[in-house]
Write a structure and sequence with these properties.
There is one protein chain. By secondary structure, this protein is α/β, with parallel strands linked by helices. It has helices spanning 9-12, 49-67, 87-100, 120-128, 143-148, 155-168, 185-198, 215-221, 230-246, 265-271, 302-312, 324-335, 344-351, 357-365, 387-394; strands at 20-26, 28-29, 41-42, 74-79, 108-113, 133-139, 171-178, 202-207, 251-253, 256-258, 275-279, 284-289, 292-298, 316-321, 342-343, 369-372, 376-379.
Length: 395
């Protein structure tokens, strides 16, 4: 499968269409980060990559049977740490996607990578099999903070990986985590400006959250970690919006910032409530089928998923038909995350009712939402901090 750099907004995002995405989850990591609640697993023996490829191909075929023929608008390889895969492993999986669905040349194909697992030869191998966008988990530009976050790389390695990614891939993004213990607005503004100097066209900037089941959760409950309070975190968020906007990478979603036209096409499919096939251990999906729109989820444990894929042709443990009301709620929840907002006609068509004028007026007066003409509704910058409350009021 070949994927040359996309040259149109319609391929890379910004055309307003939800699209059809394929998400591939590679669940293995070199180490488990203390803040991470994603489906990631450490294996101290080499992973049988050929066997997992066969499992992926079987599940891809099953998803194709559910979805029917579709044209893929984006592919995202997440994890875990997909950059631990051999390029030929990824190439075989991407060939399976291309055999199942129509994959036009030039669509966005994103690979998540960690700086500690970056090698020039491997990056060039990923590029050769079709990856044209890389998203790197840098997380901080300070060695002390990287150690606190449990990362295996240092700043020097991160900078080297960023330079290499910019050299090899047409598009590159990286993640940072802020609202870390003791972090001041001045600290974050300085680090953020450094990140923007390094960034090509996209940054993902996430507030540190303490998730149940993580090592940080235990430390937090024992008083070993003190994170910024709600007001401090809100101020850091405001600093984030101001600095990125001034530097030409405004927010197009709560945590994602891009130069115009460089938005993540795949993530826009989620936020525009499009269909996507979720393949691999612990992957989730939304598929339009003959039975209606279904929510899918697969077995999280990698080896259990693999055994199920070998035995049953897939590792799915959930396949739920969503009511139109449930779809309307999901459309609202996802659409309010993005600056372009929610298509009110589509929401009304799914929900079978118009937006409640009284509730909408209440939120308008609070300054939490705003209309974009008569066709769309979006959260204001203040409302972005209270999305769950807004959805509960409107749904």
């Amino acid at each position: 499968m070949t994927n040359d750099p996309a040259t149109t907004a319609g391929i890379n995002g910004g055309d307003g269409e939800p699209g059809f995405g394929v998400y591939l989850h590679w669940p293995f990591c070199a180490a488990k980060c203390p803040y991470c609640d994603f489906n990631s697993h450490v294996r101290h023996q080499p992973v049988d990559q050929k066997r997992f490829v066969a499992g992926f191909l079987r599940e891809i075929s099953h998803m194709r049977a559910l979805s029917g023929p579709r044209a893929v608008t984006s592919i995202f390889i997440g994890g875990g740490t997909p950059s631990l895969m051999e390029p030929q492993t990824l190439g075989a999986i991407l060939e399976g996607v291309a055999a199942a669905w129509h994959v036009p040349d030039g669509i966005e194909v994103t690979l998540e990578a960690n700086p500690s697992s970056v090698e020039a030869e491997r990056f060039r191998g990923y590029r050769a099999v079709g990856v044209n966008r890389v998203s790197m988990g840098v997380q901080a530009l300070n060695d002390r903070e990287l150690r606190f976050l449990g990362r295996l790389h240092n700043v020097e390695q991160a900078l080297g990986a960023i330079r290499l990614a910019r050299e090899i891939f047409p598009r590159m993004s990286f993640d940072l985590i802020y609202a870390r213990p003791g972090q001041t607005a001045e600290d974050w503004e300085r680090e953020l400006n450094q990140a923007i100097d390094l960034a090509a066209d996209h940054l993902s900037l996430y507030q540190l959250t303490i998730e149940e089941g993580t090592r940080f959760f235990d430390l937090y409950n024992r008083g070993k970690i003190v994170v910024p309070d709600e007001d401090q975190a809100a101020h850091l968020y405001e600093v984030t919006q101001a600095v990125t906007a001034a530097r030409g990478l405004p927010a197009y979603e709560v945590s994602n910032h891009a130069r115009p036209g460089a938005e993540s096409r795949h993530n826009l499919t989620y936020w525009r409530y499009g269909d996507y096939a979720g393949i691999g251990p612990g992957a989730h999906g939304r598929l339009g089928t003959a039975s209606g729109k279904i929510a899918t989820a697969t077995e999280k444990h990698p080896e259990t998923w693999l055994q199920a894929a070998e035995t049953n042709g897939h590792g799915m443990i959930e396949q739920t038909v969503l009511s139109r009301e449930e779809q309307a709620d999901e459309l609202l929840l996802m659409g309010l995350r993005v600056k372009e907002g929610v298509d009110l006609a589509r929401w009304s068509s799914l929900s079978g009712k118009p937006m409640d004028a009284e509730r909408e007026d209440f939120l308008l007066k609070l300054g939490l939402i705003e209309r974009i003409g008569n066709a769309r509704l979006r959260a204001t910058p203040e409302g972005m901090l209270l999305l769950n409350r807004i959805v509960a009021e409107l749904s």
